[in-house]
Specification:
about 475 residues, mainly alpha, 22 helices, globular
Length: about 475
């Protein structure tokens, strides 16, 4: 906005990228601890604390008198957002029945797209104000909404029954189940899950004991643990869950390296590069893209459980990479001209198509998957770690996109397309389907895959040892 530039001055591409991305590294840092906060305070209180911190940061931005104060406000915002966003997904995942987990867990994504659309048009509506309220007003609205959300979370959100069970507070868990209207069959599954996880640890330890007696001795303390023992953050790296932790962190990081936030953050710049010379026209086109994203998210919300996580991730990744390669190829072939030719319109339409494909596939499926594949004892910590990976990748995208666009018209598109295609290939190999399964059934799927992988590895090492022993020294 002109009023923002007149107050703080015009910034270079590097400073522009740093200002936009300054919210992201604090979010990545705080998200690493969000799981621990949620495990100690409970899910609703963790959400409320994060939203409160976010609101304070937005208020500081609204009252900024220097670019440094503005960036500090964004850093505080990031700390709050990292705390509440991952915990919110975990909370919804834990209280949702299997048949409705997809639509309910993707509810925040729908609200994110609604906020994106509202934010674009709020800024568009205030951009013609003659005073600094042109850019301050959106932050004032944001701060008020954040404070209201924090208060509502603290007062009215029901504690997660699964978290209460993990703490051994059975009577409170039963009361929470009653409020949520969950049937007795689902309650019994959740209440037995902690014992099942303890048994799984024992089975993994016994499986290892054939390799080394010392491993059996080291595992004996685990077998004596009570299911209600307080979980540790380091549990996310234990042998029975580290594959899931790694898969979730990889998928959440690569979700950002698809370039989606490069498109959302710098949409006006992308449209100007494609030939919409007027800043007002490019800003309006950005708002239209937000409307499109919101519109396609609504049906995707209800179809998420019908499509499945695996198929939407793989085919969505192929579609996103194809649009990125198309745009990059047009720029590399010098087929995009600012004032004439069909190339610029192909680029503009492709940006919309990319946003649509991402919104109906990766935006929904990956966030659900990262939370639902984790066992109860590590769900909050592992999901927070995955969200930290997402924020760190988001920082790289936000920082690098304006720099890449300033130096090359096509480099960013080929980079994002390559990352997206790589993710689709990895998911085709390592990602089991979880559609329609309860959290306990998902646990069984990964438990059997882990045991099978470990047995295969032991058989391979044994065969390799026999082969090497057959050759004379």
């Amino acid at each position: 906005m002109e009023s923002f530039i007149s107050q703080f001055g015009s910034q270079s591409a590097t400073v522009h990228g740093l200002t936009v991305s300054s919210i992201l590294i604090p979010a990545a840092i705080s998200s690493f601890f969000a799981g621990r906060v949620a495990d100690v305070l409970g899910r609703p209180k963790g959400i409320a604390v994060g939203a409160l911190i976010f609101g304070l940061g937005a208020a500081l931005e609204a009252g900024a008198v220097s670019i440094a104060m503005f960036i500090v406000g964004r850093c505080i915002e990031g700390l709050g957002e990292g705390l509440y966003l991952g915990t919110l997904v975990v909370y919804i995942c834990e209280i949702s029945p299997p048949s409705e987990r997809g639509p309910l867990t993707t509810g925040p994504q729908l609200l994110i797209t609604l906020g994106l659309m509202t934010g674009f048009f709020t800024c568009y509506g205030t951009s013609n104000m003659s005073s600094s309220l042109a850019w301050r007003t959106p932050f004032i609205v944001l701060a008020c909404l954040s404070m209201a959300f924090s208060l509502a979370s603290f007062l009215w959100l029901v504690p997660s029954p699964r978290w209460l069970i993990l703490r051994g507070r059975q009577s409170e868990a039963s009361a929470a189940w009653d409020v949520l209207g969950v049937g007795h069959a689902e309650r019994e599954k959740a209440e037995n899950q902690q014992t099942g996880e303890a048994t799984a640890i024992e089975l993994h330890s016994l499986a290892d004991s054939t390799e080394s007696p010392r491993r059996q001795d080291a595992a004996s303390p685990l077998r004596s643990q009570d299911p209600a023992t307080e979980p540790s953050f380091l549990d996310v790296f234990s042998k029975d869950v580290r594959m899931r932790t790694g898969l979730a962190s990889f998928m959440m990081g690569m979700q950002q390296l698809s370039g989606i936030d490069g498109v959302l953050y710098y949409a006006p710049l992308l449209f100007q590069q494609a030939g919409l010379a007027s800043s007002e026209a490019s800003f309006l086109a950005s708002g239209v893209s937000a409307i499109v994203i919101f519109s396609v998210t609504v049906p995707a919300l209800f179809l998420s459980d019908k499509w499945g996580r695996r198929h939407s991730t793989i085919y969505g990744g192929i579609g996103c990479s194809a649009t990125m390669f198309l745009i990059g190829g047009l720029y590399a072939g010098n087929a995009v001209h600012g004032t004439f030719g069909a190339g610029r319109w192909v680029v503009i339409v492709s940006i919309y198509i990319f946003a649509v494909i991402f919104s109906v596939s990766w935006a929904i499926g990956i966030r659900i998957y990262a939370a639902e594949i984790q066992p109860q004892r590590t769900r909050a910590s592992a999901t927070s770690l995955a969200h930290g990976s997402n924020w760190a990748a988001n920082f790289l995208v936000a920082l690098a996109t304006p720099i890449l666009l300033a130096r090359s018209s096509f480099g960013a598109y080929f980079l994002f397309g390559g990352c997206t295609l790589l993710t689709a290939i990895v998911c085709a190999v390592f990602m089991p389907e979880t559609k329609g399964k309860s959290l306990d059934e998902i646990e069984e799927v990964f438990r059997s895959r882990t045991l099978g992988s470990r047995r295969l590895a032991r058989a391979f090492r044994k065969a390799l040892g026999q082969t090497s022993g057959s050759f004379p020294a």
